[in-house]
Amino acid sequence: MTLQGKKIVLGVTGSIAAYKAVELVRAFVTAGVSVRVVMTESAQQFVAPLTFATLSRQEVMTDLFTLDAEAKIRHVAAPDGADLLLVAPATANAIAKFAQGLADDLLSTLFLATTQPVVLAPAMDTDMYRHLAVQENLERLRNRGVRIVGPATGELASGLLGPGRLADIGEIVQAATELLCPTRDLRGEVVLITAGPTREPLDPVRYLSTRASGKMGYALAEEAMTRGARTILVSGPTALSSPHGVECIRVETALQMHTAVLDRLAEATVVIKAAAVSDYRVAQPADSKLTKRDAPLTLELVPNPDILKEVGTKKGERIVVGFAAETGDLIRRAHRKLTAKRLDLIVANDVSQEGAGFGSETNLVVILDSGGGVEELPLLPKRQVARHIIDRVVGLRQHKDRV
Ligand code: CTP
């Protein structure tokens, strides 16, 4: 995979992280990419255009109100002008403009004019990032096919601790590379993925559930789709929107997930079960709200079907991957599940470890295979864990094709 000869436009907006965009330019230029930098006015308060001009060896574009601005925009946004628009760092203000379609400066105008893939790497204070307005804007852009990378979690310039740091330069380069030189090694495969928790109703207002956010399964769906697979995502209730280009089937209970998976199983050549399925459901959910009584309440729970086990028995030529979230005795328990459910791979994580728990942006996993292999991965963003799992699936497919 080579980036040599590719052309990108790098938009830099007014965040303290603008200085990190300098590293980004260096990384791309070293890889043989032509980088045309566009700076907003506030970005120029943080880094001088000359820095970018020197490193990119190209004039930096800053001003919409020049005589040749229109010609420049047309040239840069044209299909042969650039292969990708990357905005890093992207401030809350820039993200809002892109989401709303405002075009009051060069970068926002370019954003509207471009027909090429777009990657945004947000960077801002945690409170700003968490604000519903920013979240809604990001969601809107994501739904339109914009790839959002990061932000990373850590200490911010303000001293706050939380999400808002610009993603690692390596991660941004990787995201751009995936769009510039897509690896289509899952072409021809149909990947069925489950994600999120299930909800088992007690009555019309209450339910039993698990602490899963769905992030791991959604990252897998995005990765599988990017690598050329037709991707079907069966998702329990999550706050996430399905990745662009993925068929998403929303379910609530384990029984519904069971039906959805079995309905689509015949099409699938790969099944990855990242969902945290509730093992039990309430035997008789009440039709109306349970009222408080001055006595203990006993719920009768009945087992839910083990969806993955059933998939394992109907495996055929399929590649089947399971997950095991444990709080101790990780390898032994995961290995037992790998064998009992006839899996090719199991992705095990100890959810009591820092950064590996439900809802976090990162994961710390061990991948066990049916040949006895044990691969420990370092703490990584979930998207990178997903890439690794898909690499293993591709490896298994190549192996199966050889024998
Ligand atoms: N799984 C499933 N259906 C269930 C329970 C689990 O498909 N009813 C799948 C999960 O999606 C996961 C794997 O089985 O890929 C392991 O789930 P886990 O909850 O760790 O294991 P269980 O088999 O439920 O065993 P235990 O709860 O005793 O750890």
From TrEMBL:
One of its GO terms (cellular component) is phosphopantothenoylcysteine decarboxylase complex. GO terms for biological process: coenzyme A biosynthetic process; pantothenate catabolic process. Keywords: Decarboxylase, Flavoprotein, FMN, Ligase, Lyase, Magnesium, Metal-binding, Multifunctional enzyme. It catalyses: N-[(R)-4-phosphopantothenoyl]-L-cysteine + H(+) = (R)-4'-phosphopantetheine + CO2; (R)-4'-phosphopantothenate + L-cysteine + CTP = N-[(R)-4-phosphopantothenoyl]-L-cysteine + CMP + diphosphate + H(+). Its EC number is 4.1.1.36, 6.3.2.5. Pathway: Cofactor biosynthesis; coenzyme A biosynthesis; CoA from (R)-pantothenate: step 2/5; Cofactor biosynthesis; coenzyme A biosynthesis; CoA from (R)-pantothenate: step 3/5. In the C-terminal section; belongs to the PPC synthetase family. This is Coenzyme A biosynthesis bifunctional protein CoaBC. It comes from Candidatus Methylomirabilis tolerans.
